């Protein structure tokens, strides 16, 4: 099993996270932010990840620190769970429809952090959740996981549906790119390392 446990405590958040990338889509998620819980649940279920996360954050300030720091911890956990990356497919691209919304997400587990985020959100908030935090979450994840991630909205009008499409697609690309392919010996790179 490729899994990891990461804890992170700052003056703004206290996070404990357990990740199994060879999971079944099981989850116990408590971030203190209802909408974000929902998105992480979708990511987990559609990515066949097992995820437990508990975050106590300064929600009296806003959601920013909790969302960003969970991205940091999830990125660290994903990188740790991958180990030496031997045998992984490395690349994946998925299209995910959610009603009127359609996203395209591509990942390269390359060791090089880069985020391309081309998503125009129609609203600033979904309920109490600030939609600009979606990009902050993915930037934090990418920087810690050391992956190249492209997130593009092809079309969509409803912010909830757009974000849901993105998180479902993100789970799916994590699953596909981290999957072991028995045809690959060592790592999938002419450099001999990722």
Automatic annotation (TrEMBL):
GO terms for molecular function: imidazoleglycerol-phosphate dehydratase activity. PROSITE patterns: IGP_DEHYDRATASE_1 (PS00954), IGP_DEHYDRATASE_2 (PS00955). It catalyses: D-erythro-1-(imidazol-4-yl)glycerol 3-phosphate = 3-(imidazol-4-yl)-2-oxopropyl phosphate + H2O. It holds the Pfam family IGPD. The keyword Amino-acid biosynthesis applies. It comes from the Bacteria. Its EC number is 4.2.1.19. Pathway: Amino-acid biosynthesis; L-histidine biosynthesis; L-histidine from 5-phospho-alpha-D-ribose 1-diphosphate: step 6/9. InterPro entries: IGPD_sf (IPR038494), ImidazoleglycerolP_deHydtase (IPR000807), ImidazoleglycerP_deHydtase_CS (IPR020565), Ribosomal_Su5_D2-typ_SF (IPR020568). It is an enzyme of class 4 (lyase). Keywords: Amino-acid biosynthesis, Cytoplasm, Histidine biosynthesis, Lyase. It is found in: Cytoplasm. Belongs to the imidazoleglycerol-phosphate dehydratase family. This is Imidazoleglycerol-phosphate dehydratase. It comes from Pallidibacillus thermolactis.
């Amino acid at each position: 099993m490729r899994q990891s446990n990461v804890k992170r405590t700052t003056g703004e958040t206290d996070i404990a996270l357990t990740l199994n990338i060879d999971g079944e889509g099981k989850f116990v998620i408590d971030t203190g932010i209802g909408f974000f819980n929902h998105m992480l649940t979708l990511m987990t279920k559609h990515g066949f990840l097992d995820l437990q996360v508990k975050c106590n954050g300064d929600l009296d300030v806003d959601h920013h620190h909790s969302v960003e720091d969970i991205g940091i911890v999830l990125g660290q956990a994903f990188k740790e769970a991958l180990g030496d990356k031997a045998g992984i497919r490395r690349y994946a691209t998925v299209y995910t429809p959610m009603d009127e919304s359609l996203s395209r997400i591509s990942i390269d587990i390359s060791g090089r952090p880069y985020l391309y985020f081309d998503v125009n959100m129609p609203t600033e908030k979904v309920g109490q959740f600030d939609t600009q935090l979606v990009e902050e979450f993915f930037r934090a994840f990418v920087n810690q996981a050391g992956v190249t991630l492209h997130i593009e909205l092809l079309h969509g009008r409803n912010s909830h549906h757009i974000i849901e499409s993105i998180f479902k697609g993100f789970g799916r690309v994590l699953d596909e790119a981290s999957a072991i392919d028995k045809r690959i010996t060592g790592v999938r790179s002419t450099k001999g390392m990722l």
